[in-house]
Design goal:
CATH topology: Rossmann fold
Helix content: 25-40%
Shape: globular
Order of helices and strands: HEEEEHEHEHEHHEHEHHEHEHH
Largest sheet: 9 strands, mixed
CATH superfamily: Alpha/Beta hydrolase fold, catalytic domain
Oligomer: single chain
Number of helices: 12
Radius of gyration: 20 Å
CATH class: Alpha Beta
Strand order of the largest sheet: 1-2-3-5-4-6-7-8-9
CATH architecture: 3-Layer(aba) Sandwich
Length: about 400
């Protein structure tokens, strides 16, 4: 039995190494070269920091990092938020999560995915700039690897902070972010817990994820066919790292949950032999469920928030997001602002302010112009093209 366990462990290690190689994830990771660009009070009891740190090719990731104020004496758990398509650190669920979990006693990092926010050449959000198909397909593999690298660099940043307990770092992703994390949480062994919201239903050849957005999802996922039963092996790798929760609305047609529901996940769990958990909400569609009470309770069990107990979370009020957004002037993506999607979300807490775009920007406009070439998607694409395999 001991020999078999060692063989399986070696096979898992080999698969992790091959995933990294296939997606051009740098090993070792780049040095962080962290810079703090300012601080502000995000909400009563919450401090926010404007930071940047390095990713592939010497480019930089702009992020907002939320933490409790005053800080507890003990080291804190931490959480990385990974956005969906068109989302970034300006998205309502990014700063809502940051503020609410910081109140619970966590350090929360939100950042701009490549091509969005301050990593967009026009400094815009909701552009989906990286969705434009670029040839050859290797660029799609590299795009998937960049998005995973960004997550791993976020983990490195949090682990480097003196106020963070590096054994209690988690990540939560929504939609595209759930796909990015499904792979990142298979290769990033420093993550204690992983939440996949609006996704996680990794399927087989020619099915939903193979046919999804090519550059950031379809091409990277198809490139992992060497794993055999990709979904089962990916979740076996998750089990090696720690806990995983997959959380979906039963009516989520965005990621095909009506055909990838409870029976699909039961079979996936059987095939993988992994102990991941999955839950569904009836009558609901595509939402960032990590802002809701059930996921907060799950994270509390795995991270032990210093300012919250499970009873505290159960007692917190909820906010109807479409109404909150209207009253606070918070923009929402019109594709997802409907009641069955994000607009109908019942988020934890009832006193999160609507933060302005100015507050959530790392750079002033003139500073951004000076730093632009080290931030934007086009700079990454040019560097990636220069490194194409011969």
């Amino acid at each position: 039995m001991k020999t078999l366990a060692l063989v399986l462990l070696a096979a898992s290690g080999a698969n992790i190494a091959r995933i990294k190689q296939t997606l051009f994830i740098p090993d070792p990771l780049p040095g962080l070269e962290t810079r703090v660009h300012g601080r502000f009070d995000a909400a009563p009891g919450v401090m926010a920091e404007r930071v940047t740190y390095a990713t592939q090719f010497g480019l930089r990731v702009p992020a907002i990092v939320y933490s409790p104020k005053p800080r507890p004496a003990l080291k804190l758990p931490a959480l990385v938020i990974v956005n969906g398509h068109g989302g970034d650190k300006y998205s309502w669920y990014a700063f809502h999560s940051g503020i609410q979990y910081a109140r619970g006693g966590a350090v929360v990092l939100t950042y701009d995915p490549i091509g969005e926010g301050e990593r967009n050449s026009e400094r815009k959000s909701g552009t989906r700039a990286h969705d434009r198909i670029e040839q050859p397909e290797e660029l799609g593999r590299r795009m998937g690897g960049l998005m995973i690298t960004d997550v791993m660099q976020a983990v490195s940043y949090l682990a480097s902070r003196p106020d963070v307990d590096r054994t209690r770092i988690a990540a939560a992703g929504y939609s595209m972010g759930s796909f990015v994390l499904s792979l990142a949480c298979a290769v990033e062994l420093r993550l204690r817990a992983c939440v996949l919201a609006g996704g996680g239903n990794l399927d087989g050849p020619g099915e939903y994820w193979d046919r999804s957005k090519p550059m950031c999802q379809g091409i990277p996922y198809r490139s992992l066919s060497f794993l055999g039963d990709r979904a089962a092996e990916i979740y076996r790798l998750h089990a090696r790292r720690g806990a995983t929760l997959i959380f979906n609305g039963l009516e989520d047609t965005v990621v095909a949950i009506p055909t990838h529901g409870p029976d699909f996940f039961a079979d996936l769990k059987r095939r993988s032999g992994a102990a991941f958990e999955y839950e569904f909400v009836s009558g609901a569609s595509h939402r960032p469920y990590f802002v809701t009470r059930p996921v907060a309770l799950w994270l509390e069990r795995h991270l032990d928030f210093p300012n919250w107990t499970s009873a505290d979370i159960e007692a917190l009020p909820e906010t109807h997001i479409s109404e909150w957004a209207r009253l606070n002037g918070v923009p929402m993506d019109r594709l997802y602002a409907t009641e069955d999607r994000e607009g109908g979300t019942r988020a934890l807490g009832d006193d999160v302010p609507g933060l302005s775009r100015e507050a959530l920007s790392v750079f002033q406009p003139d500073e951004w112009e000076r730093e632009k070439e080290r931030l934007v998607y086009e700079s990454w694409l040019n560097e990636a093209r220069a490194r194409l395999a011969k």
